[in-house]
Design goal:
This protein is mostly helical and 101 residues long. 43% of the residues lie in helices and 6% in strands. It is globular, with a radius of gyration of 12 Å.
Length: 101
């Protein structure tokens, strides 16, 4: 079992199966996302607006993911306001077609 912040584990996992690897739903602040994005640990990044530092941080994370060609599927498993925010924000990014709920 991998921990949600196991960067090396996610990088290794991503190399083996043909299944897209997602994560990031428990990471906080954009600084936590930088190594996962820049080192190619995820095919799909899942920031949670309630956990990642709010709307501004979510947008910065989404922009980083977009710059690296990583699909964004927000993690909306929180409050109704958080889910509504994830839905609204995700509509502004072209590599986003789902919100996890």
């Amino acid at each position: 079992m991998m921990q949600p912040d196991d960067l090396e584990g996610f990088k290794t996992l991503r190399k083996s199966p043909p299944v897209p690897i997602s994560g990031g739903e428990v990471l906080t602040r954009r600084q936590s996302f930088i190594p996962f994005i820049s080192q190619g640990a995820f095919d799909i990044i899942q920031p949670d607006v309630v956990k990642c530092g709010g709307i501004s941080e979510w947008r910065r994370i989404a922009n980083m993911a977009e710059d690296h060609g990583i699909q964004l599927i927000p993690h909306g498993w929180n409050t109704a306001i958080g889910l509504a925010t994830d839905l609204q924000l995700s509509s502004a990014f072209h590599r986003t077609n789902f919100v996890e709920f």
